[in-house]
Design brief:
six-stranded mixed sheet, three-stranded antiparallel sheet, 5 helices, protein kinase activity, Protein kinase domain-containing protein, alpha+beta, Phosphorylase Kinase, domain 1, Prot_kinase_dom, Transferase(Phosphotransferase), domain 1, ATP binding
């Protein structure tokens, strides 16, 4: 808002949101049925809306219907934004990701939607799945974040410390197969590293985190968000866990 003088009285006039002036007010992404509703708005930013038809048919849940799962952690050990949440009154547990612009939430939603649509006919695609959208209670068209399947397990980094070469090979082959399938879908994993692979209760390797970015030491900066970067990252992962074979 800005204050203006109208005949001796101060009046508040709403301004268009400007992140340079007002700071980052994320999350503020809207879920809409059509862009037509915004065609006459001079404040419209097409990068801050999601067309409902591009999303898979997952539940839309108000934030008040979710509660943090603490797993016995002390308050000082909990992050400000909860990660493990439960739907109130149920045993349904999810991984919550907040819709922050700087964390690439729109990119991740787009990728997760592609994965969901593909996984209906390809259940062997081993990734975390989008299972819900979280909206604000006072504005159900505004995205707060989204819910992923909660994958119980440990990271590839932890599980390979005492694993046999055969198990390491199995997990890397599973990650390799998933990454190749993602590439066929036109999807770049983006941040290939052992900490972004979870070994689940069945002993399978699940690829997680599609928010973008990269980790120095795995690929060069200029190769981030590229298919080539993913393949280089795979081989860096293999070397880190003690395998000499080439992947990709």
């Amino acid at each position: 808002f800005k204050l203006v003088n109208k005949q001796g009285h101060l009046c508040a006039i709403q301004e268009c949101y400007d992140p340079d002036m007002h700071g980052d007010m994320s999350p503020r992404t809207q879920i809409v049925d059509s862009l037509v509703d915004f065609s006459g708005s001079h404040c419209f930013d097409p990068e801050e809306v999601i067309i409902r038809s591009t999303l898979p048919p997952v539940p839309v849940i108000s934030a008040s219907k979710l509660e943090r799962v603490t797993d016995g952690l002390r308050p000082e050990e909990l992050s400000d934004v909860p990660k493990k949440v439960r739907r109130t009154g149920t045993d349904e547990v999810f991984f919550f990701k907040a819709g922050f612009r700087e964390h690439g939430h729109l990119r991740e939603l787009e990728i997760l939607s592609k994965i969901n649509f593909s996984s209906y006919s390809d259940p062997s695609l081993r990734t975390s799945r989008l299972v819900g959208l979280v909206v604000w209670d006072d504005d159900v068209s505004c995205l707060m974040g989204f819910l992923l399947e909660y994958v119980e397990g440990e990271t590839l980094t932890l599980r390979t410390r005492n694993a046999s070469a055969a198990r390491k090979m199995k997990w890397m082959r599973q990650v390799e197969a998933t990454v190749k399938r993602l590439h066929q879908l036109g999807v770049v994993w983006g941040d290939a590293k052992p900490d972004n692979v979870i070994i689940n209760a069945e002993g399978d390797a699940i690829v997680v985190d599609f928010g973008g970015g990269y980790t120095p030491g795995y690929i060069d900066k200029e190769l981030q968000q590229t298919f080539q970067g993913d393949l280089i990252g795979l081989n860096q992962m293999a070397a880190e866990i003690g395998l000499r074979q080439r992947f990709g």
